[in-house]
Amino acid sequence: MIIDCHGHYTTAPPALKAWRTQQIDGLTDPARTPTRTDLRIGDDELRRSIEPNQLRLMDERGIDLTVFSPRASFMAHHIGDLHTSSEWAALCNELCFRVSELYPERFAPAAMLPQSPGVDPATCVPELVRCVEEFGAVAVNLNPDPSGGHWTAPPLTDRSWYPIYEKLVEYDVPAMVHVSTSVNPAFHTTGAHYLNADTTVFMQLVQGDLFADFPTLRLIIPHGGGAVPYHWGRFRGLAMALGKPPLEEHVLGNVFFDTCVYHQPGIDLLFDVIPARNILFASEMIGAVRDIDPRTGRHFDDTRRYVEAAELPPDDLTGVFERNARAVYPRLDALLTKQGR
């Protein structure tokens, strides 16, 4: 199988955005605040949003299944308060679950959390529980910066995050570390903020000892790890200066990277630096980069061709495409096993 561990519902029906606009308007005019039941999207609308988009491209590129979560840039945890985020997360998570019900062999649901700046992360636990127990979510997206690019939250190694980790460990569910929209004009959302966050979180993990407290916790750092592979020597040296064990012992038992890197030299570097067992296939399709590369005539995010051109040993290639994802996402493995795959 080829499993894409990083997909977002970027093509959701327009009614979802309209509901969100009303919700935001309701922050200043409460009379305009919608209820969850005001959002009406039928199954046919979901099919029309998926079949000519994600599903078509999956078929064209030979991707068997995508781990499917709400649109990352739409999480926008900086908007409103905890109630705002809770209502929004509940709706977005339910839509991803419904897509997985319509196409059970092609999509597995992952959830966003109702994070809010300055709010105790423990408040996210009820939605996490609901999504795992009711929707069969195989992963969650965890935003290390709910402020939208101002970085007011403590590092992910801070004990305030522990209630989320405790529940993830209990359910044996991984978290993909994924920020949302940047409202800081210094940081472009997808070109800077996403990659900054990947790099920043890795350094937080190097500085801390999170996995001593949670030895079975698994985190996926997307977008190829941001600057991490390129500056691996810097991180090795900093770990030594901090008195930490080698990175292979300190973080690589719990941290994984995906292949959302949109050119061949970048993928080659990723595989040269990071062990293949720590890399999961992903494309983030349809996502931040949607155009066709004029140098190749192929979409930038058609990452399967980069991985196949990296000349990995066959066993490593199988690991990247399937086996690693099944190990990092045990609930996905159980789902596939139940389906006879």
Automatic annotation (TrEMBL):
Gene3D superfamilies: Metal-dependent hydrolases
InterPro entries cross-referenced by the UniProt entry: ACMSD, Amidohydro-rel, Metal_Hydrolase
Keyword field: Lyase
Domain Amidohydrolase-related, first and last residues per copy: 3-330
One Pfam family hit: Amidohydro_2
Record protein name field: Amidohydrolase family protein
Organism from which the protein derives: Streptomyces asiaticus subsp. ignotus
